[in-house]
Amino acid sequence: MTAHLYTFEKLLSASSQEQIFNFLGQQCEQLGYNCFFYSPVIGGPGGEKLFKEDRKILQGEELIKQNAFTTYPASWIHRYQEAGHVRKDPVVRLIATSNLPVFWDDITRSHKKHVVFDEARQHGLANGITVPVYGQSGERALLSIATEIAPEKSPDHRIATAGMAVLIALHLHEAVQRINRKDNEPSIPRLTHREKECLQWAAKGKTSWEIGNILSLSERTVIFHMVNATKKLNATNRRQAVVRALSLRLIAP
């Protein structure tokens, strides 16, 4: 299973919620999962929240207004909020302290009986992967892909699926942030020619050492340009910087 950055071109250029929904649906299906859930994660004294108005049960357009995109059964979205499951969901608890994808079956093996998973199964969500997303401004979000029957996967294929889920989550978060910016026109940072070159080769999967050889620069100089570009793009790491540069059309896919 391979992922090329141009795979996400439609998502990065999405200008409507419908386009985001369609892209996510296609990607989940290709990975063997039939539904998804994306939402910002809000921390506070009372614990983690997925919606600002967590005392009110939100559905449909109300969810979208709070940047929650989902094809989960409406019955489960209602029950999850009604029961206050976010405060006892082991998946939400885990992503609060880790950047790694969470495999639901890893949790269910250690929690053979858990009210959240037991009820999720009743609504057709028996297996899934959840990916945490962290933004430069401190914002957090999660993406879950789920299905009723887990697809059979070898260990290598399982890891590759998680890797794709991470890439989808990263590009999805950027697409949502982009749509939310005023007038849908983000301020575009000024990158130097070298910074763009380094980002362009990083987008092709090249390491700093390889980029240095290609551009006849030292590895340290490449790292210097990548760090500067990452700061200018308000990104948390190299991968996010590449995604943002692609989204702003500063480099080509």
Widest sheet: strand order?
2-1-5-4-3
Query: Helix and strand string, N-terminal first?
Result: HHEHEHHEHHEEHHHHH
What's the shape? globular
Number of domains: 2
Specify the structural class: alpha+beta
CATH third-tier fold name of the largest domain: Beta-Lactamase
Structural write-up:
A hairpin with a 5-residue loop joins strand 4 (127-134) and strand 5 (140-147). The longest helix is centred in the middle third of the chain and has 26 residues, at 155-180. This protein has helices spanning 9-12, 17-31, 61-65, 74-82, 90-95, 104-110, 115-122, 155-180, 193-203, 208-215, 219-232, 238-247, and strands at residues 35-41, 69-70, 102-103, 127-134, 140-147. A 5-stranded antiparallel β-sheet has the order 2-1-5-4-3. The protein is globular. Helix 8 (155-180) packs across helix 12, helix 9 crosses helix 11 and helix 11 crosses helix 12 (238-247). The protein is α+β, with helices and mostly antiparallel strands and 253 residues long.
